[in-house]
Amino acid sequence: MKILVIHGPNLNILGNRKKEYYGEKNIEEVNRMIQSKAKSLGFKVDIFQYNCEGDIVSKLNSTLDDEYSGIVINAGAYTHYSIAIRDAIESVRVPTIEVHLSNIYGREEFRRISMIAPVCTGQITGFGPYSYLLALEAIKYLI
């Protein structure tokens, strides 16, 4: 079984960006955590990071070939306004978990709205990089 993990915009600068929200770990450290957890669950994992909305949509569209058993997505700021990403997620046929490092409900008002939550299987928010690991556990449970 293979899981797709998508990091959205600005996640490439983890460790340098608002550490009080996003923590100290850089993207490579987070990816190693994800890979280790996936392996322990018996998954293979493909991890991508995109700053551009269209790249995220294209990657989600490519999942229609049934290569993946589940998707973990942190759409970053696109979470709050991207109908294009929402539509792409709605088209996938596998469990899709929305993830956020910070608790989006404890932050600015605009961050409390998720355009993608209604079309995701579930949402995990506020556990730092462990949000990704919890999402992998959820997918294991779901499939």
From TrEMBL:
The record marks 17 as: Transition state stabilizer. Pfam families: DHquinase_II. GO terms for molecular function: 3-dehydroquinate dehydratase activity. It comes from the Bacteria. Keywords: Amino-acid biosynthesis, Aromatic amino acid biosynthesis, Lyase. Its EC number is 4.2.1.10. The keyword Chaperone does not apply. GO terms for biological process: amino acid biosynthetic process; aromatic amino acid family biosynthetic process; chorismate biosynthetic process; quinate catabolic process. Pathway: Metabolic intermediate biosynthesis; chorismate biosynthesis; chorismate from D-erythrose 4-phosphate and phosphoenolpyruvate: step 3/7. The active site is at 22 (proton acceptor), 100 (proton donor). It catalyses: 3-dehydroquinate = 3-dehydroshikimate + H2O. Catalyzes a trans-dehydration via an enolate intermediate. Homododecamer. Belongs to the type-II 3-dehydroquinase family. This is 3-dehydroquinate dehydratase. It comes from Anaerosalibacter bizertensis. The gene is aroQ.
